Task: structure prediction
Amino acid sequence: MIGTGAGLAVLLAACSSNAAIPATTSTTKPSSASAPTTSVVVPPYSAAKNARTDARLVSCTDNPGTGWVASGTVTNSAATPRAYVIAVDIVTATGDTVQATQVLHVPTVQPGKTTNWATTPALPGKTGLACVIREVLVG
Result:
């Protein structure tokens, strides 16, 4: 019963406007039993750093042999140069279950300028997936 109460407390804290939202960690284990497990730390959401409207997903492609690649653009809508942190989830097309998460660090983009970004290939051999931008932060 303690686990249920603690889970409820975390759930309620996450709904509170005063609570800090912790960073999310996503773990991906390759299909090979001897391959290492990799972890990705998604930065915690910050309303002050939110730049979701600056990024656009252009394509989500399954490249045979190497895996899924999400790519897009980010346009600096601010009056000052800024770098970006973009978190992308690769999900099942039905049910939106996260299969992999990648965090990209886009170098400084000048005001009004656009630059391209792309994830590294992931999940070779998986079919029926989609890509979703989870968050975009100024970073």
